[in-house]
Fold this sequence. Notes:
- With 699 residues, the protein is an alpha+beta fold.
- The protein has an eight-stranded parallel barrel with strand order 4-5-6-7-8-9-10-12, surrounded by five helices. The protein has a seven-stranded mixed beta sheet with strand order 15-16-17-20-21-22-23. It has a five-stranded antiparallel beta sheet with strand order 24-25-28-30-29.
- Strand 2 and strand 3 form a beta hairpin.
- It starts with a strand and ends with a strand.
- Residues 238-246 and 685-699 have low confidence and may be disordered.
Amino acid sequence: MKFGYTKDYLTRRNRPWFPVVGEVHYSRIPASEWEDALYKMMMGGVCVASCDVIWIHHEEVRGEWDFRGRKDLRRFVQTCKACGLKLFLRIGPWCHGGVRNGGFPDWLLNGNCIPRTNDEGYLAQVARYYRMLFCQVEGLLHKDGGPIIGVRIENEYGHGGGLRGQEGERHMQTLAWLARDAGFDVPLFTAPGWCGAVTGGLLPVMGDYREAPWDAEMTESRHSINDVFMPLRNFPGSGLNNGKEEERTLDAERFPFLMAEMGSELQVTRHRRPVATGKDTAARSVVKLGSGANLLGYSLYHGGVNPSGKHTALQECRETGDPDDVPVWSSDSGAPLGAYGQYRSAYHELRMLALFATDFGEELCRMPPVFSPDNPQDPGDNTRLRYSFRMNSAGAGYVFFCNYVRHMVRPDFRDVRLVVPGTGKVLPPLFIPAGTFGFYPFDMPVEGGVIRFAQATPLCRVGQTTVLYGESVDATPGAQALLITREEALQAYKITLDREYLVLSGNPVLEGPGGYRILASTPELSLRVYPPLPKVPEGFTYRGVKKGFACYHKVLPFRQPACAIHRIGERRYRLCPADNQEADDYHLYIRYRADRATVYIHGKPVMDDFWTDGEFCVGLKRHGFPTALEVELEPLSQSAPVDLDQWPAMDGGCVCALDGVGVERILQVPLSFGETRFICCRRDDHDGCICAGDSEKTL
C-alpha cells in the first residue's frame, strides 16, 4: 500500500511522510476559482487538501440532489488531481463547519429518526447519503489513480454531541463500515480524537484553536497548555478550555501524533470575536512540532462564502438550535487565504513551516521529542523559557523554542545555555527575545559538511544548498548553507524550472498550468532569485547579484485605483470603484466601525462581516466587476453583549460609520522566458518526478 502509518508517523511508499494539509470548502467558492485557490495553497506548501462534504448543501430538500456549479464534488476532486494535490474527504455526516444544523438538512432533523445515534432509521439515511457521495467520486480514489487518499468520519463525536463510551465507539465503527460498504476503499480512515472524542479505532487526528469564539464566556482567554511543549497528545481543548485531559477511549500511543486541525482562522460569532494573527498560528505550530507532531493541518486554510439556500440561510445560528450565531454569508474570519483568495500574514508564516516540512519532514519524523526537566509545564509560568528537543539516534536534531504567547507579555531570555539531553553537549549561549519562536539545528548533515549549530531556522533545500533564516550559522568548511533574514524568508517561494530556485518576492508567486505568475499589486516588481535564473524573464531587467541572489526588476503600467463613496441613507453607502476592468481583479478593503456590515450588489446580499478589526474584503472579479456596490451597517453599542479584542472609537456610546475603502489592483504578470520552455523535474515528496525530464527545449 502506498500510504499507511506506524505508531510514530504516516508513511508513503514505506517511508516516513510529513504532509501539510489545508482545509478548503469547495461549495463555498465558485468553481471557476477552484484552480487558483488550490494552486495558491500549493505555493503555500500544502500537499494535501481536505474538505467538508456538507450534506445540506447537496440535499437541502429530501431527494433533490444538487451537484452543480460550486457544489460539483466530482469536478472539484478532478481539479485537485489536475493541480497535483492529494485529498481527504470529510464526509461527516455531521461536520459542524459553521453550517446550519452542523450540515444536517432540516428534513433529517424533522424526520422519524434520531440523528447521531445508532438509530436504524438514521443509519439508513447515512448509508443512502454515503452511496450518493461515492457515485460522485467513483474512479477518483487513490487505488484508481485519483487523489482521494483518505476519508474522515464525523466531527468531535462524543465530545461535541453524540454518544460516548462503548456506544459511541460502536457508532463510529458503524459509520466507517457504511462508508466502506458504499465504496470508499481508501488507505486512511481518520476521526477527530481531541477532547475525549470517540474514534471507533480509526486513525485519530488532533486539533487546536488559539481562541474559542464559540464559548459562552465573555472573558479574556486563559493561558492554555497548548502553548507548552509537552508529550500530551489528546489535548483537553483550546481557547478558554484549560482543564485536565478528558475521559478518552483511544490509546494515543498506538498512533502517530497528527495535528490535522490547527485553527489557522477563527470563525467569529456574534457574541465573541477574537482576532487571529499569523504569528498566533505559527507559534502554536512550532510548539506542536516540538512536542512530536508529524503532520500539520490547518482549518480553514482558504476562506469562502456560504451558498444561498433554497428555503433558508445556511449558516449556523441559534434560531435553529445551533450553539452560535455566525455571519450569514462569510465563512472567512482570517484564514491564510481569504474568501476572495486574498493573502494574509498567516499564509506567509505558515509557508515557511510548510517549506521546512516538505524538505526536512522525512528526517524529522524519525526524531522523537525529548523534554528537559526545566521546560515549564504550567501555561501560566512566565519566568522560564519554553523549549524541547527532537533528535535522532545519532544525537543530531533541533532545539525548539517559543517565547511568544497570545496576549501574554513575555520576557527576553539572555545567555541561555541549553544541554542536549542524553549527550551532555552544551549549545552555544542563546539570546531569545520576547515574541520569537523557531527551532535551531545542531549536528545537521548538509551537502559538503555539517552545520554544527545555527542560531537560525531551516527553511528549505534549493538543489544541494540548505537555506536557513536567522542570525548565524556555524558549519564545517565546504558545507553548502545559505543564510537569509526572517523578513526575507516571509517572501520566499520555491519554483522549479530546469532545477529548483528560491524566489524572494514582495508580491505573491503563483503556479498554474501555464507556468508561474506574479500577482502584482504594486507599480514595480523586484525579484531576488537563488541561484540566478537561466534567462532573464521577459520584460524584466537584470540588476546584478546581491548577497548571492540575482536581482530582476520590472516596471508595470499602473494607475492608482480609486473608489468613490456616497452616503445614501443613515446607515447605507454606495461604493463606486473606477476603472476596475483594467486589471485581473480588484479587492475592495472596506473599513468601518459598526456591529456588522453587509454588502449588496444589484440589491442582492453577497458578503457580510461582524466587526473585529475594522476591515474586510470584497473581490470584484467574482461579481462581474460591478460599477456600484452598497454597504449597510448595523450600529454597535458600548453596552452590547459582545467580547471584542479591541473596541472601536465611538461617540456617545454608539458607532455606525464607514471610515473608507482601500482598493487593491491585481495584475497577473507571467514569469516567461520567450521561446524557451522548461520541462521541470519537480520532486513528488522526495519520491521521484511528477514531470518527465530535466532539460530545456526551444519551441
